[in-house]
From TrEMBL:
Residues 72-81 have a biased composition (Polar residues). Residues 59-81 are annotated as: Disordered. InterPro entries: Ribosomal_bL34. Keywords: Chloroplast, Plastid, Ribonucleoprotein, Ribosomal protein, RNA-binding, rRNA-binding, Transit peptide. This is Large ribosomal subunit protein bL34c. It comes from the Eukaryota.
Length: 81
């Protein structure tokens, strides 16, 4: 395989090699946010504003979650000592 040819992607840092269906291509590595930051993004009133947010609360109630919105729970998230 020859990776020196220009395939229109340019020279960018942080690239990983991806091989799909016999073709080699370079792509950016995916970065994920931590679970804690995801859990602390929205509070109860923010969830109640949108249809999707209300659906989330409905699913969490149906599942039997004790805490519907982690942000509104003082025992979750970052600890400030």
């Amino acid at each position: 395989m020859d990776f020196s040819s220009n395939n229109g992607l340019g020279n960018q840092k942080r690239r990983g090699l991806v091989v799909r269906a016999g073709k080699a291509a370079l792509c950016l590595t995916k970065r994920n946010r931590s679970r804690k930051s995801l859990a602390r993004t929205h509070g109860f009133r923010r969830r109640m504003r949108t249809t999707g947010g209300r659906a989330i609360l409905k699913r969490r109630r149906a599942k039997g979650r004790k805490v519907l919105c982690p942000k509104s729970n003082p025992n979750s998230g970052k600890r400030h000592i």
